[in-house]
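Researcher: I'd like a candidate sequence for this fold, 314 residues long. If you have to choose between options at a position, lean toward the conservative one.
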């Protein structure tokens, strides 16, 4: 007798079958293969797949989320998983341990930032020594989280990573126009090690090809104009902006018209001083190839593996 089965998460089941993975075991093996290609060595079991295809599937961890998005080329929600749920009406208890810890001390300001992000019509940003959170690869994001708080538990760090990636993915999924200027120093600062930097440089090139409304520019070290502090501006209503400033001991939201005028004028000057978007992406690609060459030479001379040298655990 033939047994029929109605999957609890038909979106994921249909997506994997369309790719030719007709059994959960085949799908788990394909995930392992993809994880090695992406630099995230994992061991996915059939039990993982069975939970994801259940009637109430849990959202995958940040690493598995990144792998599944790369495999299917779509946002995680389109595969039948629940949204992250960091909206303005959510209570602290609805978030994981990482979000509760993240909101500790300044919950209202962070909730306001999330509301701004969810409704932003456009976003503009400048970074001095690292990559904007929206443009960070999962490895770079995790390394940045640990850089600021080395003592975080893996569970908290993973939850923070999941939240950060979901917030960034939302911009790309909604096709929000984004314009980022990044200091050339970020192309050389190896947060998490050279393998993480190589992954990050490739991630930026990939995002530029997949996000048509993303404009990215590099401010060269030879520029006579620079700004000492990073900033993010979001268009909250047509022609109305708010700026978000991160500091070591807190954050600040600025929305006064006069102050916003200063931020907009400063950003315009950064754009004028930066390389063109085309030249910026060419520089990123050159730097990526240089880093990959350095890794290959290091692995050859040391007899080690390029994939494991200096990586940040996930």
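Model: Candidate sequence:
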């Amino acid at each position: 007798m033939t047994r029929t089965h109605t999957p609890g998460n038909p979106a994921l089941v249909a997506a994997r079958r369309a790719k030719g993975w007709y059994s959960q075991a085949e799908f788990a093996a394909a995930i392992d293969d993809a994880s090695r290609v992406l630099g995230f060595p994992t061991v996915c079991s059939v039990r993982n797949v069975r939970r994801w295809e259940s009637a109430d599937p849990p959202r995958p961890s940040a690493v598995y989320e990144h792998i599944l998005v790369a495999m299917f080329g779509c946002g995680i929600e389109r595969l039948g998983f629940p949204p992250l749920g960091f909206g303005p009406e959510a209570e602290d208890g609805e978030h994981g341990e990482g979000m509760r810890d993240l909101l500790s001390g300044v919950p209202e300001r962070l909730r306001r930032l999330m509301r701004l992000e969810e409704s932003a019509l456009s976003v503009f940003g400048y970074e001095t020594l690292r990559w904007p959170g929206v443009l960070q690869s999962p490895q770079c994001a995790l390394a940045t989280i640990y850089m600021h708080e080395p003592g975080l538990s893996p569970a908290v760090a993973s939850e923070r990573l999941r939240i950060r990636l979901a917030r960034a993915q939302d911009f790309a999924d909604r096709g929000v126009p984004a314009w980022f200027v990044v200091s050339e120093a970020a192309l050389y600062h190896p947060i998490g090690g050279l393998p993480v930097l190589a992954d990050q440089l490739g991630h930026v090139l990939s995002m530029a090809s997949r996000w048509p409304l993303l404009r990215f520019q590099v401010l060269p070290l030879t520029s006579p104009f620079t700004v000492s502090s990073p900033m993010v501006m979001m268009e909250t209503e047509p022609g109305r902006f708010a700026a978000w400033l991160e500091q070591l001991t807190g954050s600040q939201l600025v929305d006064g018209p006069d102050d916003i005028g200063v931020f907009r004028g400063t950003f315009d000057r950064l754009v004028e001083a930066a390389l063109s978007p085309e030249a910026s992406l060419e520089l990123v690609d050159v730097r990526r190839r240089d880093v990959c060459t350095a890794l290959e030479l290091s692995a050859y001379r040391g007899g080690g593996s390029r994939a494991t040298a200096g990586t940040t655990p996930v």
